[in-house]
Design a protein that fits this description.
Chains A, B: This is Winged helix-turn-helix domain-containing protein. Chains A, B: It holds the Pfam family HTH_20. Chains A, B: It comes from Roseobacter sinensis. Chains A, B: InterPro entries: ArsR-like_HTH, HTH_ArsR_DNA-bd_dom, HTH_Metal-responsive_Reg, WH-like_DNA-bd_sf, WH_DNA-bd_sf. The structure is a homodimer of 227-residue chains. Chain A has 227 residues and is α+β, with helices and mostly antiparallel strands. The first copy, chain A, has two domains: 83 residues, Arc Repressor Mutant, subunit A, CATH 1.10.10.10; 119 residues, no CATH class. Helix content of chain A is 48%, strand content 19%. The first copy, chain A, contains eleven helices and eleven strands. In chain A, a hairpin with a 2-residue loop joins strand 4 and strand 5. The longest helix of chain A is centred in the N-terminal third of the chain and has 13 residues. The first copy, chain A, starts with 6 loop residues before the first helix and ends with a helix. Chains A and B meet through helix 1, helix 2 and helix 5 of A and helix 1, helix 2, helix 5 and helix 6 of B. Chain A binds a DNA duplex (30 and 30 nucleotides) through helix 4.
Chain lengths: 227, 227
DNA sequence: TTCATGGTTCGATCTTAATCGAAGCATTTG
DNA sequence: CAAATGCTTCGATTAAGATCGAACCATGAA
């Protein structure tokens, strides 16, 4: 009589108010730090840490370390889907949660992050490459597919040179404004310098802002269409 | 911080092992009495009664009194849908209550999910109907096409009656074992009872297994060929 | 190096709620 | 009517786990 998945364990994970608040906050799709999630849930950081490791052990979260921060996001669409279903059951009409307020508009749109493109356009490029099948997530590792390699070569980036070098070619980097992934690694850097080479974009050395020309932005959007 | 639907409360309801067992038992679609559910959950009748009134208060159940018996069934397709989703998450993270045995294989192949067909054969039926153009996905919504209506009527299902009723006819339901959609809604239920009517299949009353006869399976495969 | 910051681990406390015995209703049957 | 059955309510016990202070670890900055 006791066959099948242990639904009680998973439901109990979601069933604690503090954890439910955290999960709800993560429904935005953004990754949040431990302290931010503690704040959202209204508990201390120790408590939040304990909750988050439980949620992680239950497979509901996808943690990523970056520097001395630890970011958490929902593990998959399925998790979000179940949470949505639960909200429906809870007879939910409009549930609104405050989003991170808009900061400096230019910095948010496009800026330099370790020599690669970050900000709104960075995440757009990343998402688009995933959607087009140029990049794919193999577990924790980000890999360039066959079509991706062709795509990059077509853009006149010396992909063979990058591959020969020992540095990691593709890396995910979490965006501080968007809280979503963008492309880092040697390929990320190559893309940015190619944009500059083509005069699509120009960096401001003092502010980290990247200014795209009108034509550059148009070309960029053609190459990396937003879904 | 108390605005919006209280997902923690409803998840906590599902999160107790005894209650989860009861809900899982009700996934068969049958209405069960308090004592049967107590047996299923492995608790005394008093305890079961307490659990059931909580589940009812949470809107997860639909109780019906009949003489001195009280029957409980799941409140809606949505509830069943969320439960299946939770099973998917639990199965994905490897939290199985029991290891995969012979019974498990049967469950994967064909089982009852709130009175409709789930498991391998459920997804096969769903995929086949999509492939044949009987069903189509209009955005988020699943709709029965013109040829689909004819197909269903041809199978001697009272489609007009279903359409007149207010309940949703076609719904997607995500399968926890297959991780794919199968057909739910009143049409899904009609199909399963028609299979039983034709003696193609028979449900096991204790488990959720659906056993197809040899001829039944043959006829099923002819009607819903796997791509 | 030292300091500051973000996160984790440990231990003790305390709240919540699951559980069941016993008694109380309600309905059917004899 | 009384007896039997199915379920609910009450109360006391008990076990689980949420919480936070304090100490600790790791990373980045000065």
């Amino acid at each position: 009589m006791k066959e099948g998945p242990d639904i009680a364990h998973i439901a109990a994970l979601i069933g604690d108010p503090a954890r439910a608040n955290m999960l709800t906050a993560l429904m935005s799709g953004k990754a949040l730090t431990v302290s931010e999630l503690a704040e959202e849930a209204g508990v201390t950081i120790q408590t939040a840490s304990s909750h988050l490791s439980k949620l992680d052990a239950g497979g509901l979260l996808r943690p990523r370390k970056q520097g001395r921060h630890k970011y958490f996001a929902l593990a998959s669409d399925e998790v979000a889907h179940v949470l949505e279903g639960l909200m429906g059951l809870a007879a939910g009409s409009g549930y609104l949660r405050k989003r991170t307020g808009p900061r400096d508009a230019e910095l948010r749109q496009a800026r330099v992050c370790y020599n690669h493109l970050a900000g709104d356009m960075g995440t757009q490029m990343f998402d688009s490459m995933i959607a087009q099948g140029h990049l794919t997530l193999d577990g924790e590792e980000l890999v360039l597919t066959e079509t991706g390699t062709a795509f990059v070569a077509d853009f006149e980036i010396d992909i063979d040179g990058l591959l020969r070098a020992r540095a990691p070619v593709c890396r995910e980097c979490l965006d501080w404004s968007e809280r979503r992934s963008h492309l880092a690694g040697s390929l990320g850097r190559a893309f940015l310098s190619r944009f500059e080479e083509l005069s699509w974009a120009k960096r401001d050395q003092k502010t980290r802002v990247i200014a795209f020309s009108q034509n550059g932005a148009k070309a960029f959007n053609a190459l990396f269409p937003a879904s």
